[in-house]
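Supplementary Note 3. Input sequence used for the single-chain structure prediction.
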Amino acid sequence: MIYVPVFLPFLAALVLGLVGSPVGGAIANAGLSFVVFLLTLVVFTAPGSGLIHADGLGLLFGVLTGFIALTTALANIGYVRGAQARLATPLWRLYHALCQVVLGATLLGLYADNIGLLWVAVEGATIAATLAVSLPRTASALEAAWKYFILGGVGIGLALFGTMLVYLAAQPALGPGLAAMSFAALSAHAGAMDGSLLTLAFVFILFGYGTKAALVPLHGWLPDAYAEGPAPLTTALSGPMLNLALIAILRFRHLMQVNVSSGGTAMPPGPFLLTLGLASIILTGFSLSRRRDARRFFGFSSIEHSGIAAFAFGIGGAAAIFGGLLHMLLQTLVKSGLFIALIRAAGLRGSTAPGHYGFSHLRGMIHSNKYTAWLLGGSIFALSGLPPSGLFASEFIIISQTVQRHPWVTAPLGLGLLLCAVAMLRNVAPLVFGPAPPHTKAVKAAPEMHLVALHLVLAVGLAFAMPRPLFALLSTVAGALK
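The predicted structure, written as discrete structure tokens, is reproduced below.
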């Protein structure tokens, strides 16, 4: 059963890429995403075995990926209706095919129990996303796609070399063959692996997959990709694809930690992750205040949240990893809802094309539609991490663990988070209550805004009233990867 949600999107992409009108393709994309979401739930009853096997981490983020793909695809229908004149029909077909490829590749990476298959999945998602960013065929879109391709190529090359080194490091414990590439087998025998090779491998993997997670210093592709690609694609980049890269780093970090705890010669992975995570947070804090385009602004915000998760993994321990995984979960819900709201807000001002997401262009949204304005402002406030935002819960866990385990980095962490929160809050009032551009008219709320409300409700509910099964699953995963 686990093979169906993974490979169905690839088969669907073949059909979507050949036939259908723009709106028809959008509706078909939404229907297929709904089926895939249901199948990610079914995977809980049949997690599979062998090369493709869903452990607790894969199950949790597989469902999240399916849910984000579904809500994004539903919002995409309205986006395509308003934007279909901007692209030729063959390009819209390619766009919807690439949406399915990104979904399938992400699920493949989440469910893969093989370090080589994980690399293939990340590379597949990267190529599909790069092609999608270039679809507008403008000079800025092609430049963004080229930057994504170059930096992504460097990152995936580093990750491949690191993957090969992990395989070599496993030879003393597992010998040649597929067993030396299985995460389950590697975890069970990590203590007997060559610690020196494993350390070298982790450095390459951290910078390789860290490029995909937009960690500093290889983060430069992300703001441009956010700003220039088709707007719904930004949702996939801001959540599931970043999550896949962070989960890859977390899995390899676990191998390092097991080797260290078993008396091996590997270096502790914490300092590597703490350094890159903290650098990502602080860089974002000083960069946000200069951004005038909303999509670039929230692109830098994603760099911050990737940094927070990496920082949590660097702290180590079950509680910190629990906080990091919870942060990834909640941030994905909030950020994807925010981008749906941004697309609708830009549509109310005349165009959802790149270049129409400036803060000055979107200000005074309450004069266009109160429901959209409140949801847009609420989503931005939620990203600040202040209560009652769900992200407050995850950041509180991470900060408390920092104080207990690494108090010397508490001050720079607090400074970075404070700078980011202030930059977020500065934009809420002008966007919602500021003076609107001339000739602004009040219009009815679009149906997709209910999806934004659903995302926000889920983010708050999962943080402060977490269902017991979810708490148990997160706790089990965090305990296994501590």
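Residues 191 and 258 are 6 Å apart (CA to CA). Residues 269-482 form one domain.
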